[in-house]
């Protein structure tokens, strides 16, 4: 039993180490949480008590290794994504190897505490081995005295028979049952108490993984995640009732009516080529900014003069990061709260922008100088209706920057590949050079980040400066090919840069930053739309988001989007005074007047409601109604994606093949 107790204490210590590294607001670890942690460790290990002692020790060692690896993986994953690993994430685990550079940046020396028990076991094992060796050497001196040797051996046998009595199978069975019952009570009791008091409705809504962890503990969270995945993907979810489908259809019909822009921009650019550039980790906070008199994004700044610029454009991604930005922009639905749509539901039906445009005679292509299997793009892009997908194998790797081909060469070679496309065409380009951990080779560095030099924040600014220079070369290439005058250029950032240290941003802006400041900084990405005739230019400060891309481009091309179940807004509606509701995957939202930041436990009253006119907190009740609408949209989008409901919601007569 001693080894079982040591195992429980060891795992409990590691769970407290993990929790101490989360630094999540409203997520504390009180006495009941300690009880849940201990109980959950007992539940995953009670069966080892049914084994003979040698087998039990081996089983506990294996369990210790596996659970320690899980805790460590969750810790590293949380540092990057602010979330825990789930089954859908594990299904895309082939991508972890590609994140090698980023993972190394996320490791801490203090993480060795998660392996402290292994070191202790090794020291004890080495000591015992040395002791046995010296003991054996001592007894070898008796070889010449048979009688003494026999006496010693006999004494040893007597001692062994006196202290090495084995436990019976019945006693082992009883010990395991007691451990299971005790573990069940210690785990389920407090969780039930939470679920009936301050966490009412949590398991029905599953608001956010961190809120689940706050109730269940880490091991309980993973148990719930696995059971949820089995229920949804193995056993299957029930389809919605006809009444629920009618309610969804009504919502999408009203959304379609709201985004109809009966103005001169509808169809104003019918037949134009469209080039969409999704720039890796391109954030809005440094647009127009300088360091030591040098612009960070000079080409983007110059292009703004003849384009539409949206400074309050929000990324709406979740765990799928780059793939989520791709999905939300092209399908105009929210990403999933867990995992990536690309890897979980590539076999489902979606009304995507390239698929719709193919039905309108467009030649569609995606360009990404990386492995086609990453984020399951090869399969997903086929489902999304692309005619072509150009991957790493289609490029000459003549400029190595970061993960793969540098953006400058990527744009140059992509334009050459576009020469083979028939007009009108739709081209989607995904850049990579400004990916975490932002390591540019010396030849690519031509920007001095000043006081941020030799920091990862400075490396990020240098990477963005390089990406901006590549964007300038793309513009020149389009003009040289005569495409500039008949092409809509749509450029946006995919997600944040994963750098969340407030001190870096306060140093950058030279002033203290509030919770609202930081939340907007980390969620706003720039959007720039350049139209062929440059008829529309300027800064549009309305709140907008990635879900708005597909319906907005369809509007410009004169394609009615009302038959497609889309949640995004039309950036070119007549109303320019009011901002529509923009909902983030985290549950945060803004309508241009209010801004709601949810708490980590996702209890509405623990969140923060801000008045954007004063940038100060206001009565939480002011955000309640839009919060209910935001939650409704997220849950509805999840059902549409997970249950493959688009064929049931759209107008089949007008939908793509």
TrEMBL record:
<keyword id="KW-0479">Metal-binding</keyword>
<keyword id="KW-1133">Transmembrane helix</keyword>
<feature type="binding site">
    <location>
        <position position="435"/>
    </location>
    <ligand>
        <name>substrate</name>
    </ligand>
</feature>
<feature type="transmembrane region" description="Helical">
    <location>
        <begin position="30"/>
        <end position="50"/>
    </location>
</feature>
<keyword id="KW-0464">Manganese</keyword>
<dbReference type="InterPro" id="IPR012160">
    <property type="entry name" value="LtaS-like"/>
</dbReference>
<dbReference type="Pfam" id="PF00884">
    <property type="entry name" value="Sulfatase"/>
</dbReference>
<feature type="active site">
    <location>
        <position position="322"/>
    </location>
</feature>
<feature type="domain" description="Sulfatase N-terminal">
    <location>
        <begin position="272"/>
        <end position="559"/>
    </location>
</feature>
<feature type="binding site">
    <location>
        <position position="494"/>
    </location>
    <ligand>
        <name>Mn(2+)</name>
    </ligand>
</feature>
<feature type="transmembrane region" description="Helical">
    <location>
        <begin position="112"/>
        <end position="128"/>
    </location>
</feature>
<dbReference type="GO" id="GO:0005886">
    <property type="term" value="C:plasma membrane"/>
</dbReference>
<dbReference type="InterPro" id="IPR017850">
    <property type="entry name" value="Alkaline_phosphatase_core_sf"/>
</dbReference>
<comment type="pathway">
    <text>Cell wall biogenesis; lipoteichoic acid biosynthesis.</text>
</comment>
<feature type="transmembrane region" description="Helical">
    <location>
        <begin position="57"/>
        <end position="78"/>
    </location>
</feature>
<feature type="binding site">
    <location>
        <position position="495"/>
    </location>
    <ligand>
        <name>Mn(2+)</name>
    </ligand>
</feature>
<feature type="transmembrane region" description="Helical">
    <location>
        <begin position="173"/>
        <end position="194"/>
    </location>
</feature>
<dbReference type="GO" id="GO:0046872">
    <property type="term" value="F:metal ion binding"/>
</dbReference>
<keyword id="KW-1003">Cell membrane</keyword>
<feature type="binding site">
    <location>
        <position position="280"/>
    </location>
    <ligand>
        <name>Mn(2+)</name>
    </ligand>
</feature>
<comment type="similarity">
    <text>Belongs to the LTA synthase family.</text>
</comment>
<dbReference type="InterPro" id="IPR050448">
    <property type="entry name" value="OpgB/LTA_synthase_biosynth"/>
</dbReference>
<dbReference type="InterPro" id="IPR000917">
    <property type="entry name" value="Sulfatase_N"/>
</dbReference>
<protein>
    <submittedName>
        <fullName>Sulfatase</fullName>
    </submittedName>
</protein>
<feature type="binding site">
    <location>
        <position position="322"/>
    </location>
    <ligand>
        <name>Mn(2+)</name>
    </ligand>
</feature>
<keyword id="KW-0812">Transmembrane</keyword>
<keyword id="KW-0472">Membrane</keyword>
């Amino acid at each position: 039993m001693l080894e079982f107790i040591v195992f429980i204490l060891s795992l409990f210590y590691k769970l407290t180490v993990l929790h101490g590294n989360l630094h999540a607001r409203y997520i504390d670890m009180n006495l009941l949480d300690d009880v849940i942690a201990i109980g959950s460790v007992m539940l995953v290990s009670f069966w080892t008590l049914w084994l003979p002692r040698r087998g039990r020790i081996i089983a506990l060692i294996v369990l210790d290794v596996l659970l320690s690896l899980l805790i460590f993986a969750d810790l590293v994953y949380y540092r990057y994504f602010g979330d825990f690993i789930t089954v859908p994430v594990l299904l895309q685990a082939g991508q972890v190897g590609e994140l090698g550079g980023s993972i190394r940046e996320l490791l801490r020396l203090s993480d060795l505490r998660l392996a402290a028990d292994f070191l202790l076991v090794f020291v004890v094992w080495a000591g015992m081995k040395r002791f046995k060796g010296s003991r054996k050497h001592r007894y070898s001196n008796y070889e010449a005295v048979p009688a003494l040797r026999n006496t010693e051996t006999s004494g040893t046998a007597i001692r062994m028979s006196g202290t090495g009595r084995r436990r019976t199978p019945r006693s082992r069975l009883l010990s395991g049952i007691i451990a299971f019952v005790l573990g069940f009570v210690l785990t389920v009791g407090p969780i039930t108490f939470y679920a009936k008091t301050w966490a009412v409705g949590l398991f029905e809504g599953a608001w956010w993984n961190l809120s689940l962890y706050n109730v269940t503990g880490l091991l309980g969270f993973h148990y719930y995640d696995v059971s949820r995945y089995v229920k949804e993907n193995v056993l299957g979810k029930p389809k919605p009732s006809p009444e629920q489908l009618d309610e969804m259809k009504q919502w999408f019909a009203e959304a379609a009516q709201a985004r109809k822009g009966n103005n001169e921009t509808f169809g104003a650019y019918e037949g134009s080529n469209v080039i969409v550039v999704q720039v890796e980790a391109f954030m809005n906070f440094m647009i127009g900014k300088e360091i030591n008199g040098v612009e960070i994004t000079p080409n983007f700044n110059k292009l703004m003069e003849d384009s539409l610029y949206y400074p309050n454009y929000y990324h709406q991604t979740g765990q799928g990061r780059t793939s989520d930005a791709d999905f939300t922009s092209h399908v105009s639905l929210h990403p999933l709260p867990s995992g990536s749509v690309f890897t979980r539901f590539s076999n489902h039906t979606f009304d995507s922008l390239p698929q719709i445009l193919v039905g309108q005679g467009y030649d569609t292509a995606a360009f990404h100088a990386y492995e086609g299997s990453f984020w399951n793009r090869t399969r997903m892009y086929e489902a999304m209706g692309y005619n072509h997908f150009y991957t790493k194998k289609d490029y000459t790797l003549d400029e190595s920057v970061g993960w793969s081909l540098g953006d400058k060469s990527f744009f140059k070679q992509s334009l050459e590949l576009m020469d083979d496309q028939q007009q009108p065409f739709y081209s989607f380009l995904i850049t990579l050079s400004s990916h975490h951990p932002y390591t540019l080779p010396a030849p690519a560095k031509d920007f001095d980040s000043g006081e941020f030099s030799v920091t990862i924040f400075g490396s990020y600014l240098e990477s963005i400066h390089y990406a901006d220079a590549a964007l300038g070369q793309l513009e020149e290439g389009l003009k040289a090919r005569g495409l500039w005058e008949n092409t809509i250029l749509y450029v946006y950032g995919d997600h944040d840069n994963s750098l969340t240290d407030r001190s870096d941003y306060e140093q950058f802006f030279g002033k203290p930053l509030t919770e609202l400041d930081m939340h907007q900084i980390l969620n706003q990405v720039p959007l720039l739309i350049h139209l062929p005739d440059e008829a529309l230019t300027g800064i549009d400060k309305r709140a907008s988001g990635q879900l708005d891309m597909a319906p907005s481009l369809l509007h410009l091309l004169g394609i009615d989007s009302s038959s497609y179940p889309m949640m995004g807004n039309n950036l070119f509606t007549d109303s320019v005074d009011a901002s529509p509701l923009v909902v983030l995957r985290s549950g945060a939202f803004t309508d241009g007047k209010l801004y709601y930041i949810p708490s980590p436990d996702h209890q509405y009253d623990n969140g923060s409601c801000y008045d954007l006119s004063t940038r100060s907190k206001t009565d939480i009740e002011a955000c309640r109604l839009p919060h209910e609408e935001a939650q409704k949209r997220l849950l509805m989008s999840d059902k549409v994606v997970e249950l493959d409901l688009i064929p049931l919601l759209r107008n089949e007569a007008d939908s793509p093949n």
